[in-house]
């Protein structure tokens, strides 16, 4: 877990790239732009939650300043998350600002899709091209059970609007929870196959407000077996070794399916991601127990580029080997998913 040596005593190599002590090179930055959300998904956040005051959130200018420094260290991919990022007013303006940063080659967005129909066109015009839309079920009743809100029709409308706007690829993310996944894996796979979306199933992880029960994990192999049997046989295909998903292609070449097997097949050894929370904390892992305060630097009033670069380097250098939630050593973070960023 965390190195007992004080961080001030750790010598961090002054490298042009962000590497940790395990040799992993980090080029993928996930930025939460808000902790607010218009759903209350059971695996993500509590029903009753106190959100950050807006003054605590990084401004678009502060986020862009952070991205500029990160880009000089080799970061070339950015993904905007929340909470629900489309609840952040004028998000397309931030997309445009990040798209103009030298070195940034790829910008993605993860959204629950409720506000996507209204914003898809301006996001695309601003330079966004890749979308991940969270959708756990096509059944309105189970949608409400899982999200504790209605809105399935709005999500489906958002997906269709984004498709017409030209977004590609559009990936649909579903958290696979036993008791739901058995009913929803096949309909979701068929829906994506028929509509040209890429399906991604994510094993249920211990990052929500509720007590995590490992027995509720619907494992990746079960998902693949179910799809292969009920939809179409699957063939393994070449995947990005740094990506969390392992991809499979339908044997008739009509679509792809990915599984993010965080529990049964941890991919920590290939992780290339770091995170910036909505309130300006740098995290080197979704399950990190320590954070670095970038907001304090960004609001210090003076030149911060060198100090911010050192902070980012140190955070990545101190990254642990893996999340360890298959072991007795795992400690669940105080923050839930909505406050960290998906």
Q: Could you describe the 3D structure shown?
A:
- The chain is an alpha/beta fold and 342 residues long.
- It is built from ten helices and 14 strands.
- The strands form two sheets. Strands 9-10-11-8-7-6-5-4-3-12-13-14 form a twelve-stranded mixed sheet. Strands 1-2 form a two-stranded antiparallel sheet.
- Helix 6 (181-195) links the parallel strand 7 (170-176) and strand 8 (198-203).
Q: Key terms for this structure?
A:
342 residues, twelve-stranded mixed sheet, single chain, two-stranded antiparallel ribbon, TIM Barrel, 10 helices, alpha/beta
Class computed from helices, strands and strand pairing: alpha/beta
**CATH architecture annotation of the domain at 7-170 and 269-340:** Alpha-Beta Barrel
Strand content: 15-25%
Main beta sheet strand tally, sense and closure = 12 strands, mixed
Number of strands: 14
Terminus-to-terminus distance: 22 Å
> What's the helix count?
10
Report the radius of gyration as a whole number of Å.
Answer: 19 Å
Report the CATH C-level class of the domain at 7-170 and 269-340: Alpha Beta
The CATH homologous superfamily name of the domain at 7-170 and 269-340 equals Aldolase class I
- Name the strands of the widest sheet in spatial order: 9-10-11-8-7-6-5-4-3-12-13-14
CATH topology label of the domain at 7-170 and 269-340:
TIM Barrel
Order of helices and strands: EEEHEHEHEHHEHEHEEEEEEHHH
| Fraction in helix | 25-40%
